[in-house]
């Protein structure tokens, strides 16, 4: 279970198959008396400052809410199994997973529609009107007509880059192709919506691109926001080097050599304005994955080596970008550069397959 305070109430949520329940905070003490297999009578004895009947009655209610389980019951066995299978991911990942499962698909309520039409619509684009900017060229690039199959099979994660800077043209093509609007559609009560080359749940397009350019021609080493409406780079801060890039990205190999890094961040309100259930947070991560794949394929097609990571220091990234973490989440870091000529191919051999578990339950082979 997970317990939390919500809107002034103490809530306990046996999150696998049970709804959250508001309890009196003192119930936590009763729950704690059941931290090993204990009968209600034993618990009543241990909590001798409470009336025994109160403890026994509370135990019955807690059992009904799934907050207690009976020894040997299928629920207790399932609890053990889940603790085992989720292991160190529990409770954070398991809570989010189960608490956002099997939810009915929600359509906009009349109240929500009213709210949206009365000025509650979040802005379609993120923009920094006061920032200095570089307007990017919109030159079409014939390389993007390369066969899809070629890009799909050439794509690989690069972790070693040459010192050759990325050109302004390549950056502009990539940003426009991955993050720019492909067209606008009528979202009725939501107004016009953007379509990109990647799908986005509800066409909310809550994801923005922030660009760090340690090694690009015609662009100072700086931090920018990509203004998708204008196809421009809005300057947030001058000065950005490879050391900072590595530090922001948990020193993942190659992040301190890549020509540029794009931090994909979610302006959560743009998603939340339509989808009220926390399950929608899953959708933002899926959206980021789509953008990441389009980025990797487009970068490959342009002859660049892409890299992506979820290993970054959220607080440091958001503070560098001047983003309020109460309203924004950094979801993905996408980087690229010209691949180093000595980038090794890590193809496998017979020995590697010998040490592979190809089938569940297959006896392991020692590594020597
Ligand atoms: C969501 C995601 C996060 C990743 N994070 C890292 C990372 O932190 N460090 C790293 O070296 N590679 C990272 N990678 C790259 C993967 O390790 C790589 O995709 C995998 O080894 C398969 O190789 P390929 O991309 O060349 O096919 C990440 C990939 C994805 C999709």
TrEMBL record:
Residues 155-338 form the Nitroreductase domain. Pfam families: Nitroreductase. NCBIfam families: antibiot_sagB (TIGR03605). It comes from the Bacteria. This is SagB/ThcOx family dehydrogenase. InterPro entries: Bacteriocin_Proc_Enz, Nitroreductase, Nitroreductase-like, SagB-type_dehydrogenase. The lineage of its organism: Bacteria, Bacillati, Actinomycetota, Actinomycetes, Kitasatosporales.
């Amino acid at each position: 279970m997970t317990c939390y305070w919500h809107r002034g109430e103490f809530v306990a949520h046996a999150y696998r198959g049970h709804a959250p329940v508001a309890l009196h905070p003192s119930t936590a003490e009763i729950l704690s008396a059941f931290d090993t297999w204990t009968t209600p009578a034993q618990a009543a004895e241990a909590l001798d400052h409470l009336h025994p009947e109160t403890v026994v009655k509370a135990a019955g209610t807690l059992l009904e809410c799934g907050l207690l389980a009976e020894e040997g019951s299928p629920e207790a066995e399932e609890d053990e199994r889940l603790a085992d299978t989720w292991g160190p991911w529990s409770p954070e990942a398991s809570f989010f997973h189960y608490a956002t499962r099997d939810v009915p698909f929600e359509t906009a309520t009349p109240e929500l529609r009213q709210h949206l039409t009365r000025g509650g619509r979040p802005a379609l684009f993120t923009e920094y009107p006061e920032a200095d900017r570089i307007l990017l060229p919109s030159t079409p690039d014939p390389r993007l007509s390369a066969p899809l199959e070629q890009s799909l099979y050439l794509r690989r994660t690069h972790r070693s880059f040459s010192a050759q800077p990325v050109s302004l043209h390549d950056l502009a093509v990539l940003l426009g192709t991955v993050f720019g609007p492909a067209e606008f559609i009528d979202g009725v009560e939501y107004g016009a919506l953007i379509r990109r080359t990647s799908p986005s749940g509800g066409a909310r397009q809550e994801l923005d691109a922030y660009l760090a350019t340690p090694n690009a021609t015609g662009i100072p080493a700086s931090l920018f926001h990509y203004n998708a409406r204008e196809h421009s780079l809005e300057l947030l801060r001058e000065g950005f080097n490879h050391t900072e890039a590595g530090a922001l990205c948990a020193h993942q190999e190659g992040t301190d050599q890549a020509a540029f890094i794009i931090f994909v961040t979610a302006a959560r309100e743009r998603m939340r304005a339509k989808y009220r259930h926390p399950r929608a947070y899953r959708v933002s991560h899926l959206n980021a994955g789509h953008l990441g794949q389009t980025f990797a394929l487009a970068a490959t097609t342009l002859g660049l080596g892409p890299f992506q990571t979820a290993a970054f220091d959220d607080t440091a990234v958001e503070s560098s970008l001047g983003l309020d973490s109460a309203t924004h989440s950094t979801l993905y870091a996408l980087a690229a550069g010209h691949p180093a000529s000595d980038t090794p191919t890590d193809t496998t051999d017979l020995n590697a397959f010998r040490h592979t578990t190809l089938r569940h339950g297959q006896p392991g082979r020692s590594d020597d």
